[in-house]
Fold:
Amino acid sequence: MLVLAGLDPSGGAGLLADAETIRAFGLRPLCVATALTVQTTRHALRFQPVAPLLVQDSARALLEEEDVRAIKIGMVGAEQVARAIADLLQDFRALPLVVDPVLASSSGAALFKGPLGAAAYLELMRGAVVTPNLAEAEALAGTRDQETAARALVERGARAALVKGGHLEGDAIDLLCDADGLQRLDGARIAARKRGTGCRLASALAAGLAAGRPLLAAAREAKAYVRGYLQE
Ligand code: PLP
Structure:
């Protein structure tokens, strides 16, 4: 599975978390860094996007040589990097794609340079399963209402939208919307504060799709994987 995401050297989120998840699903992670972040377990300090053509060349080389079964995109960090990835993806539209829009860390630090993060992810999510949390759904779809946001993202070209409810009060209920309609993914709230749940969920979902699982089953299995991670 190919991942394009940010490198968080602490391993809490980003590429290292993605690789851990993908291996847990029995697949081999191919990891292209889109940005280098300065992070510890507690703090996100700053980041530097990687040169767009370096990201594009690196991903293209892997896609052309390896038997890639799915692609996951996480943090892209900058508009030019997003555009380089979007251009590359034109040639690989047949592969399942999961896009986790990353605009800021849970501690509030920006993880996209400039004001055009939402527009960049709206472009990347065409034909993809997009997995925003509520803040990201609001940035992309203009509403924090889970159902309205999920439907709007599918209308704007996503294959499906999994809008996560972890930031709501009460249970962690996610909504999955695709052309067939809306499904509710229930989950009890787990009182744990851990980083990188969004990265892990999207990678687990992409791993399921890489293995040929139907979307709803892959989404449920991904949620169960994150539940396990939160309970570790
Ligand atoms: N760093 C990178 C590289 C990420 O991709 C992400 C989130 O997707 C984060 C940090 C933020 O993770 P968290 O909000 O769990 O701290």
